Amino acid sequence: MLTRIPTSDWFVLAWVVAGLGGLMVAAELIRKFFHWPPQLTRKLVHVLTGFFVFAVIAKMQSPLPVLAINAGFVLFIALALRLDWFPAMHRTGPSLGTVFYPLSFFLLALWGWHHHRLEVLIGMMLLAFSDALAALVGGLFSQAPRWRPWREEKTLPGMAAMFFSSWFIALVFLLWPPVGADHPALPLPAALAAGFCLAVFATLGEALSVRGSDNLSVPLLSAFLAFYLLHDPGGHLQQVLWAVLLGGAVAALSVRAGFLQPGGAMAALLLAIPLFGIGGLAWAVPILSFFVLSSLLSRFNARRKESLVREFEKGHRRDAGQVLANGAMAALLVMASAFLSEGPLYLIYLAVVAAATADTWATEIGLHARKPPRLITRFQPVGPGRSGGVSLTGLAGAALGALAIGLSGLPFLPGDGRLTGLKVSPAALLAAVTTSGLLASLVDSLLGATLQSQYRCPACGKITEKHEHCAGQAGQLVQGKRWINNDVVNFLATVSALFFALGFLSLFR
User: Fold this and answer.
1) Is 72 within a domain?
2) C-beta of residue 400 within 8 angstroms of C-beta of residue 361
3) Can you tell me the distance from the alpha carbon of 244 to that of 248, in angstroms, rounded to the nearest whole number?
């Protein structure tokens, strides 16, 4: 990377900087004098920036100017957003999309400039054109039914525009890679299948975005999947395609069975693509065990939870936030295995899934405790369903859930270390997974008792996870941080399991 920068790169860089600067000024003038809505001018900048990005990827040889200019734009746009220099660049309401745009290009250029330029190009072009088209079509069909997969409303026409345009753009680059691309053209059937998988992945990443995070999720997810598919178009493509098709079918059936909300099904499919498409059977069985067993346990407890449902932030039908909180870290570990040797990653993965299972089972089985739970920080009795409450019954449920995940991975944990890279007995690995999951459930309770937001209902006086408890009245925050809800706590608990597993790995070496 630290080589002499060709003179031609400086000319391209100067042209790009001048063009982007003029583009932002022109967009602001258009908004001001022609009264265009900020959404339209922002997407105009979004699309036209894509042409500059294409020119940079196609013409420049050294990544250093690209990294420098994108780092500069990240800082400049963050400052402009803070000081409201260019209102045309930003939507009504808070959004970090204009910061994420150059940040995503910076990260992709840092990773793949020399050896994965086609993947970088696919990711950035889906961001520049498909993502913008989805927003524009969604605006044109403003009367179409709107729904909320997670935090932001979407329209079916907008999602369809995102999917089909992503498929088309990916297909073009897979069939006719630009001169200097690192991969040969794919045959038409393979290109169609790969483009379909990329379009599904990108569309899900856009639909589940928050505050402009699609400008980060769409290019990074698309470039990653393109890298994986192009690395072995034969075997990898078939496995990922099956993951998309079977994952979609399972997600749809889960909605019908009442296990998932529609947004939760979309999040489950987003995670299923790396979990099943990359991980294979060894990585799929534990996460499936968590989902199926926990869903059945939650359904079994539905009647018992009816009297407490108003105290919990969410019900037994998992939404996108719950799915991502429990499965995102596991999916990231599987994605990391595409770059690194699996080695100890599998043990860490099992510990993370065990943590999610332990937390769920602690809640579900803890509801059967005869004595009220006690707050983990002060050991004073609290009502059932109170965040941070623990009981012996709940702890037993947590240990049982973590053990179940360890057992689901046991057939893939031979003592010769073929999968884990550790030549220790499967029993020791099972104990490490179970203990990591149990400890993570205690971290979950500790965070729930200290940092998780708790509200006092002005009508009934109860302390609950819900911001609105009775008659739609907003509760008063009495504990924790407003942005730390149950999903954030669950995610942090799975992260803690990663560190517990690393501790056991250090003992095994």
Assistant:
1) yes
2) yes
3) 6
Q: Is 289 found in the same domain as 203?
A: no
431: tokens are 């104990």
Looking at the structure, do residues 391 and 467 belong to the same domain, yes or no?
A: yes
The pLDDT of residue 208? 96
**Number of other residues whose CB lies within 10 A of the CB of residue 225:** 29
- The pLDDT assigned to 191 comes to 97
Within-domain flag for 252: no
Same structural domain, 469 and 388: yes
Distances in Å between the alpha carbon of 506 and those of 146, 206, 501, 503, 509?
Answer: 50, 39, 9, 5, 5
User: What's the pLDDT score for residue 464?
Assistant: 79
Q: Across-strand partners of 464?
A: 455
Determine which helix (DSSP H) or strand (DSSP E) holds 390, and give its type and residue range.
strand 389-390
| Cα–Cα distance for residue pair 310/460, rounded to 1 Å | 12
Can you give the pLDDT at residue 279?
92
Considering the domain architecture, whether residues 203 and 337 belong to the same structural domain is answered as: no
Q: Are strands 374-375 and 154-155 parallel, antiparallel or unpaired?
A: unpaired
**Distance of CA 304 to CAs 298, 301, 313, 408, 475, Å?**
10, 5, 16, 28, 25
* CB-based burial, 148-160: b 16+ in 10 Å, e otherwise: ebbebebbebbbe
- Write out the residue range of the structural domain in which residue 450 sits: 281-293+323-508
As a whole number of angstroms, the distance between CA 133 and CA 129 comes to 6
Find where tokens 């409201």 sit. 84
Mean pLDDT by 10 residues, the chain (509 residues): 75 85 84 78 86 88 89 87 67 74 95 93 96 91 87 93 98 89 90 98 96 95 97 89 97 93 97 95 95 88 60 73 96 92 84 97 90 92 86 96 96 66 80 97 96 86 77 81 94 98 89
| Chain centre distance of CA 413 | 28
